[in-house]
Amino acid sequence: MSVLLSIENLTLSYHQRGAWREVVHNVSFELQAGEMLALVGESGSGKTTTAQAIIGLLAENGRRDSGKIILNGENIADWSAKRLDSLRGVSISLVPQDPGNSLNPVKTIGDQVGEMLQLHQKISKQQRQERVLELLEKVGLSHPEQRIKQYPHQLSGGMKQRVLIAIALALKPQIIIADEPTSALDVTVQKRILDLLDVLRRESGTAVLFVTHDLALAAERADRLVVFRQGEIQEQGIAAQVISAPKHPYTRQLLQDASPGEVALAMPSQAKFSTPAIQLSAINKQFSLGKQQLTVANQVSVTVARGTTHALVGESGSGKTTLARILLGFDQADSGRIVIDGIDASALRGEAQRQLRRKIQFVYQNPFASLDPRQTLFAIIEEPLRNFEKLSTEERRQRVEAVAQRVALPVELLTRKPRELSGGQRQRVAIARALILQPAILVLDEATSALDVTVQAQILQLLQQLQQELGLTYLFITHDLATVRRIAHSVTVLRAGEVVEQGDTVTIFTTPQHAYTRSLIDAIPTFRPLIKESA
């Protein structure tokens, strides 16, 4: 294979608080035609900064201190932004991490995908329209004829990510830099996108630089791995060899956190005899889309035993988040019955409904967006107490510090603001805020999907510990079936607003009855094939 890209002794810095701080130290690796090379490591390890530097898109406060970036034999490290523009999209394309901020909100999807073709290809408007439709269909976007007329705010996060991938694929570039390209996607959509990249690699010799914190995914898909930590490469090599015989302790720790093994959780004894914590019976819900009615819940019934973890799984649009919103009282069901902790919540309104929320609290998906950036951590955690309980300043302080300690958040951090914390610390704050009113039930919406594998393992361990100590019930909404297998006692599989299958986790994973459930399970990334190959 020929070398398309060579990074030689690259060192990068950011200007912060009046001084330059080196964040990537003397990094070297090569990317060959047709291969997928994965840069793996935790947030802040330098992998995204390295990828941005390659395409000349470092943040304004970033700079290259030294090193070469050699593309097709030519050092492009000192090229001007204008000269690099001639490469972007043609030779190298970037699929950015955040679909929410990467699309123009005032342009239609069709215009944004077509723009790349318009800039670089002399084809008719009709040909461009056909190519846009073909690209949207290729990345698995449903109803592409309708999507080209829509704006970004009308699409889900997963749909937006597929649009970004379509833009990156438009000109069939030599190299695609994919920065966490599937982190917002369901496992089946993730598989489809990565299968598509594999086809491009085989057919066109396109190389993929895959930036990810998902080591299982990297291990399954990449030809070679480069393991980053604190701006340095810890080890690199053929994926199967790195996974089966890691040389560096940090790589071994990442592997351990990413593959904790299947845990057959025993159902707590009290769960079998007590009143269920949650009962949703025959829930129906429709939304109006113009003249059409969209059914998001069709006769859905779910029972969650007290003190257990129940997972709601399914692809985007399956209805799982809508069910959670109905349970929490944010949305009203069209029909059906909701019983929370023995209380019929279906008919509650006003103050009675507000007081019921003390029993059931919500932990949001994104720890970076769910905390008020203007408040201190103390104020964030304290706020529910101010809303629900008449306590003295000293009593509130004691309660806040006690719950912070319970979630392993150092008390000295409470004077800080969210921007000063890591993702894992922020999610601990969100959990502390949810626990401060001593609820019986927590609803967790993708509560670990934005976290690195090591931090994710810590948060899941914390949740299990809190459940054992406090007898909490969890409703865990997720598309991450590997996490479900580790933490959930029972599972409901949703598809297009209907229950496809439900039961205890071990049974669902070992003997799934429905083809859709089997497809979800089959799409879970696994280390095992690689380990077998290298044996």
TrEMBL record:
Species for this entry: Pantoea rwandensis
Superkingdom, taxonomy of origin: Bacteria
Family membership noted in the UniProt record: Belongs to the ABC transporter superfamily. Drug exporter-2 (TC 3.A.1.117) family.
Domain called ABC transporter: residue spans: 5-255, 278-521
Protein name: ABC transporter ATP-binding protein
UniProt KW keywords: ATP-binding, Nucleotide-binding, Transport
Molecular-function GO terms, alphabetical: ATP binding; ATP hydrolysis activity
GO biological process: peptide transport; transmembrane transport
Pfam families: ABC_tran (PF00005), oligo_HPY (PF08352)
